[in-house]
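I am still getting used to backbone structure tokens and would like to learn alongside you. Would you supply a protein for us yourself, any chain you care to pick? Start from the sequence, derive the backbone structure tokens from it, and show both lines together. Go ahead whenever you are ready, and we will take it from there.
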Amino acid sequence: MNVTVAAPVAGTVTALTEVPDPVFSQLMMGPGVAIDPDSEAVDVLSPVDGVIVSLYPHAFIVESVGGQAILVHLGLDTIALRGRGFALKTAIGDVVEAGQVLMTWDPVTVKEAGFCAMVPVVALQAALPGLAELTNYGDAIKAGDPLLALN
């Protein structure tokens, strides 16, 4: 089943290999891309139709209707903020639609605390050949725009 993954936030599309964290840059969790977010408090959207299977103030996983799990991680090492700059609007087990607001976050708070605000969007344990990027690195993208396609 083909799944289109939408951008959860607006910003500039960046290669996952450019994320300054080896867990993401070495594709240990799976392939994907990153978004360097616009610098203001924003809504974070579900990238796919599915179910919230994991949820923290700084990250979440949505399992798509087709069974593919998508991780969205809001900044790097942001667990240390203990929820500061993040506001959840959903819960584990919620059925969500692509484009639905799941939380809000403030990249400025993340940057002021000394953390990287890049947003990795990862198809967990997906095969790289089954993933297509629907935009180019360096492109500006709006939240909700098509970002990835999974076969």
Residues 34 and 120 are 4 Å apart (CA to CA).
